[in-house]
Design goal:
Chain lengths: 340, 267
């Protein structure tokens, strides 16, 4: 179980305008600013849950993951992961968790991944038999066999990421913090990693907290999402429910083989995308059967798909609202200050 | 991580450490070869003492001293400060902190794994020393000879502790390069690396006696080159042991204070 209560993490940041003069001035007097990377976030995640942790760049996602995995000391608030206080980094805590960062490597750069695996086995004190079995499983699931004895520096990004995942899971952790695990990977590799994370979660009843800029990762893996913006929590709940609440209309995409009168299209719904004969329209959910009937009856349709609105759109609206709310609070505070 | 568990992990850590050293062999050799300052100093002082001994040091005495210094420096020098401070600065320390093994032990084991390769470099120097005029100035006292290895081990430990501590200062300052340069200046002067401590002016000599630098380099060299009685040998070794403990505690104290400030940048 993961529990965060009023979690705050602040950083002191040296601020300096560009240019030679300000560089010289900063030698004598430095200006610092406190940045609230995480500002009072609370949530609880039960064992075995898969949760997407979303937010724009700089929202505080990675900082939160680093606090939860014990790399950072929180400025304020309480954090508990599997019954441990993360920043104490007790051995049993480190055995229970793993953190995979798409942009950081734990593999020894000039040695083959098998050497990192051997080192992790020793450090995590994994019995040899269990190590062999886990490595065999991971090798099969991630297709690692051709990669194990190649120096890490000679692996492609996708190959390295698969090896990173294996290194992170050899000790069979039960809490997985995954920070952009599919960044830079091609679609096939992204799907492979998603499938793997899902099967690991089911097999080991592992808790997964995932950040990703690829919404497909989140939609495919996480029934629940937590959204933060500017360090504060703006949503915590079921992904489908969020989509329904924010935008209850469906997206109907179809490709026509013949023409269709413009007024007929307008009657079907609001056109969102039109690319030659390919159209995407927005239709209220209850009207879907009627619209599909109207389309498939008189017109020739090559393909048709009914989908939820893309999560990207939902989040864009959410972040816009969150920003407006923040501006409102800031303006109110400024007005109160000006009024004395 | 418990001691028994660390000991169980040690063979694998050492094996991986050896593999790493082999992978970085060129870089490693270049690093070793940069420690040639004693040879320059040997050239200088040999010419000074060519005609007559200088404050008790003959030409052979200087040869023995500086070749011994070169051997000790090759076997006990440490670059861990650069590794630690760079990993802190670039955020790479994060991945190390996720393992249930104190980074002190992780770095120490990889440095111990490099010792066989350092010996390969040190051995030819030792052969040159034994066939050169310097051989006549080496000790033949059994007690001193027996204590050279323990003294080398303690010198390695003190040096590693000090360098680990300097690297951990990277938690408090963005770049530690200036600090490391300052350290190297003090080390060169007070450890006997530039010239034997007994050739230093009185004030500096007294200062050298209370600082750790002497115990990082000069102590094993003194055991190799200066006739000492049993009390002197004991003083050297107990001094080294005391500094090994003090520097270990200091290194861990700085680490523990610093880790709270770690920002785990990047990623």
């Amino acid at each position: 179980m993961i529990r965060a209560r009023n979690l705050e993490k602040h950083f002191k940041v040296h601020k300096r305008p560009p240019g030679f003069v300000s560089a010289m001035r900063s030698l004598v007097r430095r200006k610092y600013e406190v940045v609230k990377a995480v500002d009072g976030v609370s949530f609880t995640i039960e064992r075995g849950e898969r949760v997407g942790f979303l937010g724009p760049n700089g929202a505080g996602k990675t900082t939160t993951l680093k606090v939860l995995s014990g790399l950072l000391h929180p400025t304020r608030g309480e954090v508990e992961v599997e019954g441990f206080v993360p920043f104490r980094r007790q051995t049993r805590f480190l055995e229970a968790i793993t953190l995979v960062m798409g942009q950081k490597s734990q593999l020894i750069w000039d040695l083959p991944p098998s050497e990192t695996y051997a080192m992790n086995r020793a450090v995590f004190d994994v019995p040899h038999a269990q190590f062999r079995q886990t490595l065999a499983e991971l090798t099969e699931l991630l297709d690692l066999a051709p990669l194990l004895d190649k120096p890490t520096r000679q692996l492609s990004l996708g190959e390295r990421m698969k090896c990173e995942l294996a290194a992170a899971l050899l000790h069979r952790p039960t809490t997985l913090f995954l920070d952009e695990p599919t960044i830079g990977l091609d679609v096939a590799m992204q799907v492979a990693i998603r499938d793997f994370v899902r099967s690991y979660n089911q097999k080991h009843e592992a808790t997964v907290l995932l950040t990703s800029h690829y919404m497909d990762d989140v939609v495919a893996l996480c029934p629940r999402i937590i959204v933060i913006d500017a360090g504060t929590l703006i949503h915590d709940g079921d992904l489908r429910q969020l989509i329904k609440t924010m935008d209850p209309d469906k997206r109907v995409s179809f490709t026509l083989t013949d023409g269709i009168p413009e007024d007929a299209i307008a009657k079907l719904g609001t056109v969102l995308v039109r690319d030659g004969q390919r159209l995407t329209i927005k239709v209220p959910e209850r009207e879907i059967p009627g619209v599909v009937g109207q389309l498939l009856g008189p017109y020739k349709v090559a393909d048709l798909a009914i989908e939820d609105p893309p999560l990207e759109e939902i989040l864009r609206v959410m972040f816009g609202k969150s920003r407006e709310a923040r501006d409102l609070v800031d303006n109110g505070a400024a007005a109160r200050e000006a009024a004395g | 991580m418990s001691l028994s568990r660390t000991l169980r992990a040690l063979p694998t850590l050492l094996r991986v450490g050896v593999a790493e050293t082999v992978a970085y062999r060129a870089e490693f050799l270049v690093w070793i070869l940069t420690t040639t300052l004693p040879l320059v100093m040997l050239g200088l002082w040999s010419s000074v003492a060519a005609e007559a001994p200088f404050r008790g040091y003959t030409s052979a005495g200087f040869t023995a001293y500086y070749l011994s210094t070169l051997i000790v420096r090759n076997l006990t020098g440490s670059w861990v400060a650069w590794q630690v401070s760079e990993e802190i600065r670039l955020g790479a320390m994060s991945m190390r902190l996720l393992r249930p093994l104190h980074p002190y032990v992780a770095f120490a084991s990889s440095h111990v794994a490099a010792i066989p390769f350092r010996t390969v470099v040190a051995l030819p120097i030792a052969v040159i020393l034994l066939v050169s005029s310097g051989a006549s100035a080496l000790t033949t006292e059994p007690l001193q000879l027996a204590m050279i290895i323990p003294s080398l081990i303690l010198a390695w430990v003190i040096t590693f502790n000090v360098m680990f501590m300097l690297g951990a200062i990277g938690f408090f300052v963005t770049k530690t390069m200036a600090l490391l340069n300052l350290y190297f200046g003090m080390f060169s002067l007070f450890s006997g690396y530039l010239l034997p401590i007994d050739l230093l002016p009185w004030v500096l000599r007294k200062a050298a006696e209370v600082m750790p630098f002497r115990f990082m380099l000069s102590s094993p060299v003194e055991l190799m080159t200066i006739p000492l009685d049993a009390a002197d040998v004991a003083t050297i070794l107990f001094g080294q042991l005391a500094w090994a403990i003090v520097t270990l505690l200091l290194a861990l104290w700085v680490w523990n204070r610093g880790i709270k400030r770690f920002e785990a940048v990047g990623g």
